[in-house]
Amino acid sequence: MDKRTTKNLSDSSVLKILSNISSNNSGAVVVVQHCIRMLTQPPTNFYKFCPNPLLFRHFITSPFCLCSPFVIKLLHPLTTNMSSYRKMRYPSFSLFREYNILFIRGLMILFLSCLTIRLNFCISSIPSSLKALPLKGHFSFEEADLKHVARDFGNRYQSHPMAVLHPKSVSDIADTIKHIWNLGPSSQLTVAARGHGHSLQGQAQSHGGVVINMESLSVPEMQVYTGESPYVDVSGGELWINILHETLKYGLTPRSWTDYLHLTVGGTLSNGGVSGQAFRHGPQISNVQKLEIVTGTGEVVNCSEEQNGDLFHGVLGGLGQFGIITKARIVLEPAPTMVKWIRVLYADFTAFTRDQEKLIFAKKAFDYVEGFVIINRTGLLNNWRSSFNPQNPVQAIKFKSDGRTLFCLELGKYYNLEETLVVNQEVEKHLSHLNHIPSTLFQTEVTYVDFLDRVHISEVKLRSKGLWDVPHPWLNLFIPKTKIHHFAEVVFGNIVTETSNGPVLIYPVNKSKWDNRTSVVMPEEDIFYLVAFLASAVPSSNGPDGLENILNQNKKILEYCERSHLGVKQYLPHYTTEEAWRLHFGSQWQIFQQRKSVYDPLAMLAPGQQIFQKSINFS
Ligand SMILES: Cc1cc2nc3c(=O)[nH]c(=O)nc-3n(C[C@H](O)[C@H](O)[C@H](O)COP(=O)(O)OP(=O)(O)OC[C@H]3O[C@@H](n4cnc5c(N)ncnc54)[C@H](O)[C@@H]3O)c2cc1C
């Protein structure tokens, strides 16, 4: 709706309501006229509360602005202090002298009640106004659909939306957002893009708002461009596993991954996208050339480093705050067919991290470097035997962990079958420079697809046992290199006393591969470790594998990090207060906040992150 129309509708319909109430009462109409004039000529200090001129204009032209606390503040002097009202510059004061104060008060109460009724009417008409939008896709108000998007992989937070949009085109998304933008700040409607819903703490949910099921956005159709600098154009709702299969048809592949590929492009680019390839290629957000974004005002914007760079960098790692990623151009490289997958164990944390750090700088050594911690586990090597081969079976069988905390270095070397001999020699050479426990070298060869999709294989197994849809109280941290030993000493074996209910990943990445113009928050040092506590809670257990205990453990880890000033940053962060978000963003907070006011001035996007609220702070 045109803003001018909105304003006219606002003035005239309010007048109509009032004249209906007291058709013979000219004084009432004058009061309303005053209110309306005051609204269209607000005091200049309103700008103080409203940082964005666009938002200010929107607010003042919206019919809902009449019900805001701001208006109530404006009306307050009218109902309580007639002498201050007399100081106003509009005429017809004399009319009021003829009415007593009680009458005016009563009238104002009636006036506000009518506006409330009007507001309620508008809210209840929102579903039909959404339904009326001419879309290629559709809105769903079905309980089953709402229930589905009200939960996520974390399985701990649930917020029911009002509607689910299943878009078929980018304009479906743009029109919906524009419509909600036009409803103004008082509509309370928010919009959450939902990728595959694999968030952990409600980040893709919207309480009473609209959830956009990004997976139903099938445009653009995936398009692979071969040549010297290959790339693929994909929809923001595309799953990475589908991109892998499509690009492999051209002998190509994206370079940077997450450990699990049943996540969407928009979902991982909103966070970072980190895995064992990040040391070489940076996270997924370092491997994107272009984006198409629908901003919080419903505008469709193309962006890249060169074009609308501020939005481009803001959206990457931007936790969905500045726009909805509808399209992305992902960098590709020639794909290998096979992966040599290696695991070796360390009992000495210093030797483990020294080797990890050596490998992330070694040229052409390995293509994937990760690691994980093993605490209080028996029979682990026996489990490995089903998929890995010990290099020395006799020695391997004699290995005993003796209750020690162990650190597993996990490596991947990509190759094609015709290179097998050369690759074997290279791998052997690199392994000979490592300081792992000699008897614990395990290797296997798998296809590139099986390697990248390895977590899905575990998913299938866990699903069959009913252990996938359980609470996942995960904690992901970025820890500066100089603090990782201190962290390991305190946390592994002390705070975390076993790792049987989920892996604890640990591996270094180098910051030079990350772009500090993006929104992602990193520690200050050049090398930092990703430490991921990926526990699954056993429902209704009160033991160490129960939700309460795992949450308690996470709390202890965070408290220790804070107490010791380790300079740790949360990855996939979750905070609930502005103060905590400010601390998280540190010096980046100002630019983050500024970008929000430019690209999503009503703060309607990704409310589940709990960074901004869709309301204006008047205090
Ligand atoms: C089994 C598993 C393994 C994982 N492994 C890794 C890993 O190795 N590395 C890693 O980095 N992460 C990993 N993650 C975390 C994962 O990257 C995030 O949880 C990611 O957000 C999930 O993607 P999704 O498509 O399900 O997004 P959702 O959970 O649906 O959304 C996440 C956030 O992004 C927003 N969003 C979604 N789509 C868009 C869009 N198109 N435009 C703008 N905003 C959008 C949402 O509103 C929400 O705020 C893993 C998660 C799981 C469950």
Summarize the structure.
The chain has 619 residues and is of the alpha+beta class. The chain has 25 helices and 19 strands.
How would you describe this protein?
The protein has 619 residues and is of the alpha+beta class. 39% of the residues lie in helices and 17% in strands. The chain contains 25 helices and 19 strands. The strands form three sheets. It has a nine-stranded antiparallel β-sheet. The radius of gyration is 29 Å and the shape is globular. Flavin-adenine dinucleotide (FAD) binds at residues 152-153, 192-199, 203-204, 214, 236, 258-260, 263-264, 266-268, 270-275, 319-320, 324-325, 455, 572, 606, 608-609.
CATH architectural group of the largest domain: 2-Layer Sandwich
Query: Main sheet?
Result: 9 strands, antiparallel
Mean pLDDT: 85
Question: DSSP strand (E) fraction?
Answer: 15-25%
SSE-based structural type: alpha+beta
Number of domains: 3
Determine the N-to-C terminus distance.
Answer: 30 Å
Low-pLDDT windows of residues: 1-51, 59-96
Total number of helices: 25
Principal-axes geometry comes out as globular
Rg computed from alpha carbons, rounded to a whole number of angstroms: 29 Å
Strand order of the largest sheet: 13-15-11-14-12-17-18-16-19
Helix content: 25-40%
The distinct ligands, each listed once, are:
flavin-adenine dinucleotide
